[in-house]
């Protein structure tokens, strides 16, 4: 088999080997009596490729002999394969109704492939009650149904679910590995690719944006400039609003890109040419998609603020490394002078307090704390860390 189905999973050779072996085993006579099982959990940090691996695995399971067929992979990428069901909620939590519908769909026999594959992205978003609905399906699965769950870590799921899945763990790839992908796949210049990979902290999707989108790079620069300039409480309060504006702009840009691509894929799957009229009987499909996109936009602001906070974590991480003379490569090498100046002007204990404040702001966002308040509290702590004590 060509490796193109797994090409973007940089630095994940062990995980790729595991699912490829399982897919081949699943198509042996007897239905997979070796390394194949009916339920899988793919874990890894954001940007490591959890969903990419899940869909590559699904495509292999839905192809003959466990070797990915390009036509099947195209159907999986478009989410149109008749034996693939996907739960990718845009809400903060996955609802019990969504899981019940998916569990109901899992009871059907495969229509064209050997298996029916159920993919749950962000399985960590399920409450305990919702998880228990999924648990019952994992305890008594139909013979030809395979579940593939994705989550940041095993600890994000109930122990009872963890005991019923086989875990495939993804690691954080090295920046050089991500940069090599950007050069080979996107034609990015090597220096730009490496800087983007470092500043994205090896998050492949974010590295791609930073390497190919000038406005995304400028928004990141604005984020760091605002935070480093907030050296008094009044500046911190004003800076919080500016950071929120940056997050809104980033979220809007990202959602517009996704929405346009999603609409184009939907029209193509309906056989409607670009600019063509949508048949009345299919308009409800687009209407539902647009409603989903509105929900995604609502959640997108929180994600945008979180991206801002992740960037700021990297800055104060670099400050702490400079203070401790750790000898590790900085994430923000282009800001080395400013980072060294801040490191010299503050103490490691104060830097740790800022890192804690940023982490606390990230925890507050899912708890429905207004983003502006979370940002203000964080930046005020950062400003006070520079004051003599």
Automatic annotation (TrEMBL):
Q: Name one GO molecular function term.
A: DNA-directed DNA polymerase activity
Q: Which domain of life is it from?
A: Bacteria
> Which keywords belong to this entry?
Nucleotidyltransferase, Transferase
Q: Which Pfam families match?
A: DNA_pol3_delta2 (PF13177)
Q: What is its EC number?
A: 2.7.7.7
How is this protein named in the record? Answer: DNA polymerase III subunit delta
